[in-house]
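The protein record passed on for reference:
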Amino acid sequence: MLKLVGTAVVVMVLGTMAGGAQTTTQAPAVSAPAAERTTPFPAVNAKEFTAASPTVDEVNAFLKAIWGYDDNRIWSVAAIEKTKAPGVARVVVFVADKTAPSKTPQTTVFFTTPDGKHAIADQVIDFGAKPFEAEREELQRRADGPAEGAASKDLEIIEFADLQCPHCKEAQETMLNLAKEIPQAHIVFENMPIPEIHPFAMRAAEEGVCVRKAKGDAAFFTYAAAVFDKQADLTPTGADATLAAAVTAAGGDPKDAAACAETDLAKDDVHASMALAGDLGVNQTPTLVVNGQLLPATGISYDLLKRMIAFRAEQDGVAVHLQPTLSNIP
């Protein structure tokens, strides 16, 4: 998990960079967009660039991949140093905000591995100009939950959610708006129940699998919306009626759905979705995965989330034209 300096957002970076380590020691260079040359970053010292790999250009490409959505974020690569561990480099980056030129730049530090494919910050993350590509391709193969929106997976937004999770309920307005405002998106729901916290989440997920099996993807989304709407009634005395009503709203038969939920087919489907979340490092709900990049579904503004999605899409060759809203009109 790489913390983004200057914002409360935490972006979990996944993917694999092709190619190996460089073999010659690099010289420091202007480290980011031209606008940075006029910012008061500390002067670059050539003595701080002792590692053969990664290069300044590789570091900048990586940072652009994860930070490029933010037009106000600027940075300067301050050091790429050898460490005691063979082939492991220590990368130091100064980060600033163009809207706060008087504020002292902050420092981000991470380490890169000898193969040039991974970085280590709070956790091991993937490094390179396309750090999400491997996960994007894997998800295009494995994420097979209920889907809506575009048929093409060129821009795929996957929501990992727990039907009894209050924050997941809050995120549903966001998901509805994304479906309306980004028609290029293929939106997938993947079950990630957390039964240790939400005792009826697993059953709700299993019945949802059965609704989808009987009535299709659109029916599942109707069912999920109904469960979220009455989420407070998922109690020992209210869960049966709440789930039955949600199944009925989706056009299904509550008795059939309840019976189906007890089968291995339904349980295996939910566990496969949970396993996918685990393989990606998803450890909280709700979490969005946009073309392989993990993003928070709550805790940031909707406009910021849209910009992050549009930037990710642009990096993958998909044009997303965001419509202005009252909150982002200059």
Notes: Confidence is low (pLDDT under 50) at residues 1-37, 326-330.
